[in-house]
Amino acid sequence: MRAPRIGLLLALVAAASLRAEEIAFGILGTDSAAALRQNWNPFLADMAKETGLEVRGYFATEYAGLVEAMRFGKVQLAWLGNKAAIEAVDRAEAEVFAQFVDLAGRSGYHAHLIVHLDSPIRTLDELLVRGRTLTLGIGDPQSTSGTLVPLAGVFAPRGLDPRTAFRVVRSSTHGGNLLAVLNRQLDAATNNSEELDKLQLADPAKFAQVRILWTSEPIPRDPLVWRRDLAPAAKDRLRTFVL
After folding, report:
1. Three-state DSSP class for residue 65
2. HEC letters along 32-48
3. Burial call 69-103: b when 16+ CB within 10 Å, e when fewer
4. Full DSSP string of 108-134
5. Which of 1, 14, 54, 166 would be 131's cystine partner, CB 3.0–4.6 Å?
6. Are 181 and 137 in contact (CB under 8 A)?
């Protein structure tokens, strides 16, 4: 009976060690920290309950900071935009293990350029022609839909630089840019279909105040990444929970 008891003891020790392992889940700053916590804490609590791991949120203010946190082992698991995920794979010992889909099973979303419904600007061409008199909100430099896709889809083909094509250019989160347009603090801003879908669900009246001037081709939805050196048992539990 000694061997089974030793095996049981080793299994209990391994289980206790896994439960004690703390996982910092990095979440990119597409919205205010308070909004991110409200949206994500229930998910993190479910993850901790189902996996037996100690899971805490690591809410970053910018994409680059989140990649660096993963690089130095402060974050083991993260939700990142596509460009930031590539950098994490290249520089932070990360690997992609899952991709978001929406409730309809779609793995793509869209970048937008938006103005307030009351704006005299009704087309993308009008926006660009009058840009020198207008203010524009864009995303984090690492943001796929907030910066990179609009640059590639709107400005680069026309030989334009937003910093010189507009009177003022401000960088903020998707949520911050959307609020600034709704409050008429910005004439126009980049955004994406995910943010607008959230607004439509939460406040249809405010959603109706947004005019979309431009829509990108589909963009692959954001991936989930983890550090390669995360314990295999922890990876198994996390993968099972997420999928």
Report:
1. helix
2. CHHHHHHHHHHHHHHHH
3. bbbeeebbbbbbbbbbbbbbbeebbbeebeeeeee
4. EE-EEEEEETT-S--SHHHHHHTGGGS
5. 166
6. yes
Structure tokens at 109: 């979303």
Question: DSSP label at 183?
Answer: T
Which amino acid appears at position 42 of this protein? P
Q: Is the pTM of this model over 0.90?
A: no
Q: What is the pLDDT of residues 39-94, one digit of tens each?
A: 899 999 999 999 999 999 998 878 888 999 999 999 999 999 888 899 999 999 99
Could you tell me which of 172, 181, 175 has the C-alpha nearest to residue 140? 172
E strand intervals along the chain? 22-27, 54-59, 77-79, 94-99, 108-109, 111-116, 135-138, 168-171, 188-192, 210-215, 219-220, 223-227
DSSP state of 2: H
